[in-house]
């Protein structure tokens, strides 16, 4: 499998955070619309054993997240918990050398991510008024992002040009909630292949993943619960999926010995009571970091 990276530049606000499993789902829909249902079924037929595509979360351009380990392992001053929580960005070189003390805040790297609450109200489009005498406004969180790096791990049965075409489809049609009214639009750079990644006994995940039956010596992570929904033409008949508990992005996995490995996790199935063929990305791309002591 080959690892690629692109940098996206948002051209509108987003209502859904940039998580790898969500973007993977939208790319699957783009495959369905561009190449047809049969092609998507072919790619997913062996996904539980050999994934054709794994997608990372979105990260501040040029950086990766600080590992989700204890302050002691990160060699942080345990008296500065508040400031430590704000220092979240490191380069890949710093992760590999274990220079966690160089972690930067959003302000340090000019990574401007904002969240604003937009007030809306339900409208009856037949009368162009609110329902009856009721006026019940509600708030929706909209996010604006700086440039973000996203990583893709491609299998042999999915071509780079196919991924670029699918990513173009998502960038124009919109990512996440309220894409039909212009949210979630972005532009992206050409996909750059990432080479010369060495091996280690310690790796960090780049998206939420299912750690079930993971054969490792130690794992450090924060839990993440995904409350998923089916989209597109599957959004009309019980679209709600069963909750899934993942190990979140930034998890650290230590193996017994050095190992050459590019991803971990598993495909997640049986999560929709109506659409039995639903498959969720429970895999994560992993990158080597400084080896934890035995």
Topology of this protein?
Layout (H helix, E strand, L loop, with lengths): L1 E9 L9 H16 L1 H8 L8 E3 L3 E2 L3 E2 L15 H6 L2 E2 L1 H6 L16 E7 L17 E7 L3 E7 L5 H14 L12 E3 L3 E3 L5 E6 L12 E3 L2 E4 L17 E4 L4 E8 L3 E3 L17 E6 L6
Antiparallel strand pairs: 1-8, 1-9, 1-10, 2-8, 3-8, 4-5, 6-7, 11-15, 11-17, 12-15, 13-14, 16-17
Helix pairs in contact: 1-2, 1-5
List keywords for this structure.
alpha+beta; 2 domains; six-stranded antiparallel sheet; 5 helices; five-stranded antiparallel sheet; 294 residues; 17 strands
Question: What is the compact description of this entry?
Answer:
The protein is α+β, with helices and mostly antiparallel strands.
* DSSP strand count: 17
Q: Tell me the major beta sheet.
A: 6 strands, antiparallel
Structural class, by secondary structure, is alpha+beta
Overall average residue pLDDT:
90
Query: Which percent band covers the strand fraction?
Result: 25-35%
Q: Give the overall form.
A: globular
| Rg measurement, Å | 20 Å
The CA-CA distance between the termini, in Å, is 29 Å
Low-pLDDT parts are: none
Q: State the domain count.
A: 2
Number of distinct helices: 5
State the helicity in percent bands: 10-25%
**Which sequence of SSEs, written as H and E, runs from N to C?**
EHHEEEHEHEEEHEEEEEEEEE
């Amino acid at each position: 499998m080959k690892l690629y990276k692109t940098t996206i530049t948002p051209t509108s606000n987003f209502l859904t955070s940039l998580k790898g499993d969500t973007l993977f789902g939208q790319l699957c829909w783009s495959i369905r619309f561009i190449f047809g249902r049969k092609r998507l079924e072919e790619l997913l037929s062996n996904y539980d054993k050999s994934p054709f595509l794994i997608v990372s979360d979105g990260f501040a351009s040029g950086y990766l997240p600080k590992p989700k380990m204890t302050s002691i392992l990160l060699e942080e001053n345990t008296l500065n918990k508040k400031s430590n929580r704000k220092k979240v960005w490191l380069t890949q070189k710093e992760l590999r050398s274990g220079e966690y003390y160089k972690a930067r805040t959003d302000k340090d790297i000019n990574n401007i991510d904002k969240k604003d609450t937009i007030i809306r109200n339900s409208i009856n489009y037949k009368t162009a008024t609110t329902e009856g005498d009721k006026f019940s406004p509600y708030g929706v969180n909209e996010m604006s992002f700086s440039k973000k790096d996203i990583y893709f791990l491609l299998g042999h049965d999915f071509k780079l040009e196919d991924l670029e075409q699918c990513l173009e489809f998502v960038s124009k049609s919109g990512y996440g909630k309220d894409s039909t009214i212009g949210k979630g639009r972005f532009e992206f750079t050409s996909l750059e292949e990432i080479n010369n990644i060495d091996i280690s006994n310690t790796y960090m995940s780049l998206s939420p993943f299912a750690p079930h039956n993971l054969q490792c010596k130690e794992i450090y992570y924060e839990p993440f619960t995904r409350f998923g929904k089916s989209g597109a033409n599957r959004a009309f008949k019980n679209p709600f999926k069963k909750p899934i508990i993942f190990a979140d992005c930034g998890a650290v996995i230590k193996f017994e010995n050095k190992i050459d490995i590019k991803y971990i996790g598993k495909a997640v199935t049986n999560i929709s009571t109506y659409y039995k063929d639903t498959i969720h990305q429970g895999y994560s791309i992993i990158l080597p970091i400084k080896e934890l002591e035995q």
